[in-house]
Specification:
Number of helices of chain B: 18
CATH class of the largest domain in chain A: Mainly Alpha
CATH architecture of the largest domain in chain A: Orthogonal Bundle
Strand order of the largest sheet of chain B: 8-9-10-1-11-21-12
Oligomer: heterodimer
CATH superfamily of the largest domain in chain A: MetI-like
Radius of gyration of chain B: 27 Å
Distance between the termini of chain B: 45 Å
Low-confidence stretches of chain B: none
Number of helices of chain A: 11
Structural class of chain B: alpha+beta
CATH architecture of one domain in chain B: Roll
Largest sheet of chain B: 7 strands, mixed
CATH topology of the largest domain in chain A: MetI-like fold
Largest interface: A-B, 71 and 81 residues
Helix content of chain A: over 70%
Shape of chain A: globular
Number of domains of chain A: 2
Low-confidence stretches of chain A: none
Mean pLDDT of chain A: 87
Mean pLDDT of chain B: 90
Chain lengths: 328, 576
Amino acid sequence: MVGYIVRRLLAAIPLVLGVATIVFFVVHLAPGDPASLYIAPGVSPEAVEQVRQNMGLDRPVYERYVRWMGAMLQGDFGVSFSRNQPVRDVIVQILPNTLLLSFSALILAFGAGILIGVVQAVRQNSFTDGALSVGSLFFYSMPSFWLALMLILVFSLYARNVWGWPIWFPASGMVSVDHHAMGAWEQVLDRARHLVLPAVSLALVLAAGVARYTRGSMLEVIRQDYIRTARAKGLPERTVIFKHALRNALIPVVTLLGLYLPVLFSGTVVIETVFAWPGMGKLMVDSIFQRDYPVVMAGALVFAVMVVLGNLMADLLYAAVDPRIRYE
Amino acid sequence: MRLPSSRIKALALAILGCGFLVACGDPDQRALRDMPVFCQEVLPAVEAHMERFDQPTGERYGGTAVVGGLGELTGGMNSLVTPEHMARQHQEFMNLMTLVQVDGELDYRPRLARDWEFDPEVGELTFHLRDDVFWHDGRPTTAHDVAFTYLRAADPSTGFFSMSSWEPYVGGADAVEVLDDHTVRFQVEPHAEPLEIWRLLAIMPRHLLEDVPPAELREHPYGTRCPVGNGPFVFQEHRPDASWSFVRNPAFPDELGGPPYLERYVYRIIPEQGTLLTELLTGSVDVYLAPNPDASSRIQEHDGARLLDFDFREYVAVVWNSRRPELQDPRVRRALTLGVNRQEIIDATLAGFGDVANAGVPPFHWAHHAGLADSLRHDPDEARRLLDEAGWMVRGADGIREDPEGRPLEITVSYNMGNQQRQDIAQIMQSQLAQIGVGVQPDGVEWGTFVGEMTSPDRRNFDGAVLSIITALHVSDYDQFHSTSVDQPMGLSGVVDEELDQLLDTLQVVVDREEAIPLWHRYQERVVALQPYTYFFFPRRLAGVSERLQGVEMDVRGDLMSVADWWIPAQERRRP
């Protein structure tokens, strides 16, 4: 198993470097340059030219590529043009925020999706199945920004101002402004409250997909002979479904994990903007608009690594859910 | 008692989850761990210095105000490298100090400089500084800091955004002389506004930045990780893309207003307008800076908030590229302006919060020419007449005018994609100019590309482009309309005119306002005649303010001009 993981990781290196190279040239060959964003009335052309030089943009593209690749291989991603900070520092500060949001959404999406799928399969063709199918399709087809704004409207604005609910959720940010003055337990709750709406917005769309897959997979499995045998042995229905059927039904669902990671990371772009969540998605979009080449390239690299690791994790999970699969 | 293994697993998962929530993304812990060495040295010094002072007491002292804005304070508190509007406001009114400030009449008033002398005959500008202003780490702010700031800003390697401001400063580094710790003198050629740059440029601490090479100032941690200012608020924390926090400076001199009432000020970055509005309406932010005009009615209707609208230094215009054959003739450009109902555009896109513009001098400014109001009123008949006169006639059935060679009068109006207001303007123009026989094709272009295509002197790839320009309080169109700027980035329109050149040259050096006013009026008349731009409007700046926040005044000087006087009644305060 360890050998397999090492081989996969080694094979990923050229892939990641290839992604980095393509992103480098795509970004640098796009029209416009970061220094031109400094142009405004009263800003002298000499100052803009100096900024261009300070950013190293006066050098040919191939030279910039060689320098960047050399520095990147030594762990130096350069300095962000728009944030005036080393890119490494920016990413170190912001990546954990995206990981927190993404993995919370992932857990929520798979937890809820699998549960809904199982209920639908067990109660196939019932009213519950129909209602959950309609609900799943509704969320599956909704644009995430609309969903996010609706959640804010209902669970933040109306819940607090109009209906006076005892529980409402903050519309933006990771923590309250008085977070530092809270006790430890209060801080955990504060962070969790801020996480609810963005994580749910991200998870709902994914959960709908997971539910559809789980339902289909479960329907196949529960018609198998060994399920009938398990029931004939007199096992409780709960044990039959969750212990015997679900584990086998999960094998195709695990495939989704690898497929959903890129979807999840692209989804964070919109969700992080709507909820003012300071994460990688928003960082990447801002950086693309500001032509902040070092951040765009480092961010693309980070996303590529995360997708590679996510896919590896999905492959390893196959082995966990299906004892027939062994990696040598 | 022995717990079943499933419960142990559940308990372990719950603990892990809580730990995940606390540790993953805990900016406080990360900040301590990852601070650059520079910050590890300066921040404890600031903390130690501030602990020496008692906090002021009184009914109004205390509380945290939260201000919500759409974007980061790019460049942070480093006044030498950032041209960004909100960052500069935080420097000017909160964390740093400028030598001078302006009052409501735009007359210069003392700030860090107690007073000054300007002798235009000799060309000497001498500032006498206050001796009671200290950097937040305890070091006094002196004339050496002023000289250092000037020398760094005037050094081309720094990339200071307003290098042209130093053109009247004679001799580069030789232009400055420190006479004593609190007196500094500059050699300046005759100039209309020698003080303006000292209102814009906040003074920086020499003792912290002297050893930093100018070209490295932009990326130095001072700006975004650990600024040490001398203003009424002390930097507390910056969470990238999330917030900036400042706390009261208890040692701020009484003569300058004393310590601010607020104990803490937080600027939160909330990039989505709808979310920001929700945060104001739910009381999570106290000030919503620059809301869209379409949010104004929601704010006005809400019991817990009020809407402020005030003059701003921005105008929105379409720049005409006179290098294009169909836009060379001033009569055509004038017809395009007369064919557009600008008041209708203000009503449609700004909910009425704006004033029609005819030239770039805003209505609040002493040089504004109010007599131009009628000269460009919507008049489609006059527009048609001018186009006929210029040789553009309707010859075909499609109603689009053509020149004698049969080339149609069709122009593209570009705007940066995603800017709804500019898109609306381009589309309204398309509909209104069709009525005078001009074909307009709106074209949304990605921002970086938009700027590059317009400002690159060897491209200028546009016919007309909708843009907004924020002027300085000292209005100068020199880099837009002087013939020497035609091949510079801001020489967008390419219009060259001898009289404009003479007026721009003269206005640069006339110090007396009474003498300058007729020149300014003639200048604006000439701009109206040449129509390098179709000026649409001066939008009024808006702010949604929570009712609990008192003492808030905003005007053309800035959203944060009164921040040191903001206060919150005790019963309505958050935890500090």
